[in-house]
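Two proteins follow. First one:
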Amino acid sequence: MYMIKYILKRLGLMIMTFLIIFVVCFVLIKMLPIVIDVSIGKDADIAYATIKARGYYDPIPVQLVNYIKRIFQGDFGVSVNHPEYRNSPVWDVFVEKLPPTVLINVYSTIFSVPLGIALGIFAALKKNKWQDHVISTGVMIFISVPGLVTAFLVQYVFCFLLGLFPLYMKAGFDYFTWPMFKSMMPAVIAMSFGSIAGYARFTRAELTEVLTSDFMLLARTKGLTRRQATVHHALRNAMVPIFPSIVGEFVSVLSGSLIIEKIFSIPGVGGLYLDSITYQDYDFFMLLSSFYILIGLFAAIFIDLSYGIIDPRIRMGVK
């Protein structure tokens, strides 16, 4: 009962937060002047007609009400400024662009989570030894280096010097074929370095603290070997804060893939989001902003609920 009340309360707060951010984004983007590239000829006339027909010159409160009404009717707007998708429904383009973004982030998570946690466990078990120092040094390097630099290094080493992968993602919609998977790997590797380093640092810190706890000493005095105490007691307690961080890391990677998608020519929503800002395409900007806002809000709720799933002693909503 407490959990149901807590979930309903969080959902209510999530909806309120989303609406506030949604309105702020809408007002700010609508305060910018409407700019149409007149060099496109007849397309410019069509764009002006579309803008006028959809009430883009109305007062901002009127535009907001009309926009929300159209959303409930399944109309998320049309592109007026993007040269590639001009006069196309933004929802159809969004659905087309979503799979590459989701796939590279899922592949990155699958690759980085086990490797990062394994390195963190190994570093904790070898605390203050040369293995720990090597892993900790590598972790600090990859956490400190911006993802943009890592992406260029991946392109230079894996694509140019070694020739293991193509420089850019393969065109097409055959997302689950080997050539397409291979072309995604440079972007996946570039996004994984920072995640692996983050998981390794966090896991090492949590497991090191647990291994020095009093209950671990008690477990050893009762006859458990170091391996048994670590596997059955230390890892379980250390995973309580680690597992929710995986969800948070996935969201941060999804948000951070905006630049990575541009560098590796991933035809996903990240590049589309940047283009919507560059071309001041209002409907694209609002749809994609709502997408990223909802991801962050749902992830926050899932992180809180996951604590109770991992550790039954934790009950969210209980006073």
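Second one, unrelated to the first:
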Amino acid sequence: MDREIKPKYRKLRKILMIAVPAVIIIAGIVAAFVSSSSTSYQTDSKTITFGEVTKGEFNDFIRFAGKVETGTIVQVSSIETGVVVKKWVEEGAMVNEGDIILTLDNPNLQEQILTSESQLAERQNMLRETELAMDKERLQMRQDLLSSRTEVNRLGRILNQQKELYAEKLVSKEEYTKAKEDYDLAKEKMELLKERIHQDESYRSVQVRMMRESLENMQRSFALVRNRADNLNIKASHSGQLGTLNAELGQNVAAGQLVGQINILDNYKITANIDEHYIDRITPGLTGEIDRNGAKMAVSVKKIYPEVNSGHFRIDLSLDSPLPSNIRVGQSFYIDLRLGDPAQAVLVPKGQFYQASGGNWAYVVDADGKGATKRKIKIDRQNPDYYEVIEGLTPGERIITSDCSRFGEADRIIIEQ
């Protein structure tokens, strides 16, 4: 008798019939999601530029513009206040030390000069009158001394006579005593007169000395006032080229006001403003060169200013080569300044892709040139021609070097030939 054979695993087959289509559907959804998260951008090859990744010598330098200035600048300032009445030279003219640049007028100063001159003349007259009076008094006292000495001599003779007569008992003792007292009195008067003359001489010498010192002080003061009048002529303190002159006829100039500058043309320097990105890499002594009409001029960093303004800092460079004869203040040159020694590195040409990526990624072109894929890279140093790549690229590859900002967030670029 036949038995019915029931198929095994019927339940498993039912499960598989349901599960397999579900897995396929889920895989399709995942694939669709993954494909939708990876964006692409289509562009024409004529609208983009390419750069080849190479290995070569990287020259670590920067290029910037600098302006020629004189190594020494002398400021021209007014010492006195006044109104400009004459300009003797114009900007750009060559001046010698002592040449008059501007003439000022100051009526108040002229009045002070006249007053000082009058006071000086009055003091001089007083001194002369005092000296004349002293000389007259000195002569009178000498005459008094001569009279006193004559009187002493006369009384001395009388005393001798009275002494002889008194010894012979021809005169009384009273007469002899009176003659001796008259002589002693006259002698004391002469000594007092001598002492007075000595004291007067000392007093007069002190008085005259003080008056002369006062007169000399007044003369010096007058000379200073005179010099102030001379200072109304603003003169060149050094020989050179008058660079600027900020004064016009009729302008009121204050004491100490800057009115111009003189450029000393015996040496020059170059000033430049550099991006603050390089502030830690530029130090005094770094060397570079200027290409001037095919001729190279060596330069070196002389001074670095610490202030940073608008993202730039200033440096001064000295010209280390013989100066050309036709160099002019204000000329501009491009300078290549070496920051380090040449070294082998992976290089890519400079381009606008750096502005969009910040040097963190680039679109690497496929071998067939029909597409490009976004790849992470790392850029270290740069010069005016190349970027130094330290990660992400190998020599022989190509990247898109033109502006990539229009590609948005695309991971893949399709390039139409």
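SUMMARY FIELD: The helical segments are 10-37, 107-167, 173-230, 353-357. Confidence is low (pLDDT under 50) at residues 30-37.
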